[in-house]
Amino acid sequence: MSQSALVDAVLHGGASVQRRAIAKAITLLESTRADHRAQADELLTALLPHTGKAFRLGISGVPGVGKSTFIEVLGLYLIEQGHRVAVLTIDPSSTVSGGSILGDKTRMEKLSVHERAYIRPSPSSGTLGGVAEKTREAMLVCEAAGYDVVIVETVGVGQSETAVAGMTDMFVLMQLPNAGDDLQAIKKGVMELADLVVINKADLDADAARRAQAQIMSAMRLFGLVNHAMGHAQAQGPDKQWHPQVIQLSALHGKGVAEFWAAVTQYQALQGANGRLAARRQHQALAWMWERIDAGLKQAFRQHPQVRELLPQLTREVAEGRLAASTAARNLLAAQDRRA
Amino acid sequence: MSQSALVDAVLHGGASVQRRAIAKAITLLESTRADHRAQADELLTALLPHTGKAFRLGISGVPGVGKSTFIEVLGLYLIEQGHRVAVLTIDPSSTVSGGSILGDKTRMEKLSVHERAYIRPSPSSGTLGGVAEKTREAMLVCEAAGYDVVIVETVGVGQSETAVAGMTDMFVLMQLPNAGDDLQAIKKGVMELADLVVINKADLDADAARRAQAQIMSAMRLFGLVNHAMGHAQAQGPDKQWHPQVIQLSALHGKGVAEFWAAVTQYQALQGANGRLAARRQHQALAWMWERIDAGLKQAFRQHPQVRELLPQLTREVAEGRLAASTAARNLLAAQDRRA
């Protein structure tokens, strides 16, 4: 298939043709071959004008919190409302082991076979930065194909939550009802990323869920993530803007899903009107560009023959306190300037 | 003065000779001239075997918290105990304006004229990374000259606290007694860095200070920075290690300074014995090396003629969503590879 035929099939193909074209496009984007990469960049540039119209929703939570169940219920609800839903995954374990925390084939049985849904597992190798890049690009392909809600999910492990928050319009953190009993379980850094905290399995223990909701809310206030005076109501002032909320639901029983989506819609309306959504996307795009530049510079540095020759010894000398770190850095940078 | 004479004067000079040699060495290290930089690296390498024996204490707090008063009282106390004290400063405002939050000439009047103290203000220009590098290097010069307590102070603004925690053995956060009334004032990120929190001006309002102490301690517990079961006592178990504490003092009235130093000494003993101090220094040295390498790579990238030509336009296209960030990054990296 030619490049332009592939673009056309992604943009306008009928159900099964489009689905195959998306898979083919993403496979091309994930390829590490240099000639593929050049084609992939052309493809991305051709698709880009057709992207950006979807709502990008990030969802994170520890294993067992019920992400798959929730995303399936949410996805089916959204399809019923007329949306098309893509679900992408960033699995940080895949970058280490090639294995997969999230790769369970039985996940989202109903959603995965629905013709208005597209589910793609995590790229199965590479650094987290590389995996995140592939997922961002896959997201653009899905948007060009007309999926208007893109869900990017990850487990609450490592830096993957930062990566997901950095590519989505809204970041949702899922918690279990016992979260309030042990606030240590709520990582500060992740809390700062959360636009919405969802307490799932709220039906298991209503008291615990209520307690968790109050305690997470008070922790967010304590650390200035929400306004002191702010309850669950959103600001009514002239600078109408979203403040993080904590809500309860039960994905298994389908309870609270409509309320969840109402909160998302309110977020989108407020942050769209006040310009924060557009600013967030612009910031994300530039941060992404610099992140990839940094990664590229570092990779070229580490692969440079002179650097590879010197690095082990200088690292040892710095670690043992026999060479100043700044001197070692200057020597290594100078080594890279001497072309092999 | 020859390089070896300068090294000798720093290591073994009499009071005034040594003081002039330190100043001269630090000026050399701060120079941006390439030939000076080569000499500076030689100097550092010659001094390095004589460094590492000082205790490195980082102190941070907002303007008005009483850092200067505290450091003067502490410095004089330490001199009385037989120590020699160097005080270095990282002023993040100097990297923007060349001005100085901390440059007040009337600061530490008694300490600054004491022959067993050496006080050096912040390097007055450069990026924060550059300023931090100069300060690290100045610290090594002071250590080689036999100062056995090096205090690095900064104001609680921007990233300078991370920089100071990254070059010291122990990081102390100073707070006002009303801190507990508004925990938003306590930045989460900084709290994580703190090995010890000091509530200064505790004499102003004993109730407020006690409340602040309890609330900061409970916030630290809440976020898992100290063990739930842990009071103020340190661990007695087999893995004896330091847990962050919160103490009160009044620098103005010289109250609590001996207790402060006792806590520092206990920290040093525990973390020295369990190996964490050595591990921290090794980690810092390697992180410093990579931080300088990253800065150097980024600088060379931004200064490359082809990159400078392309960057403004590609940045605009990425910001406006007309070019994928990853494509822009690849184009810019490729441009750098085409030698001008």
Automatic annotation (TrEMBL), chains A, B:
CDD domains: MMAA-like (cd03114)
PANTHER family reported in the protein's UniProt record: METHYLMALONIC ACIDURIA TYPE A PROTEIN, MITOCHONDRIAL (PTHR23408:SF3), METHYLMALONYL-COA MUTASE (PTHR23408)
SUPFAM superfamilies reported for this sequence: P-loop containing nucleoside triphosphate hydrolases
Stretch forming the signal peptide: none
Single GO MF descriptor: GTPase activity
Transmembrane parts of this sequence: none
The family this protein is said to belong to: Belongs to the SIMIBI class G3E GTPase family. ArgK/MeaB subfamily.
Protein name: Methylmalonyl Co-A mutase-associated GTPase MeaB
One GO cellular component term: cytoplasm
Organism for this UniProt entry: Rhodoferax sediminis
Gene coding for it: meaB
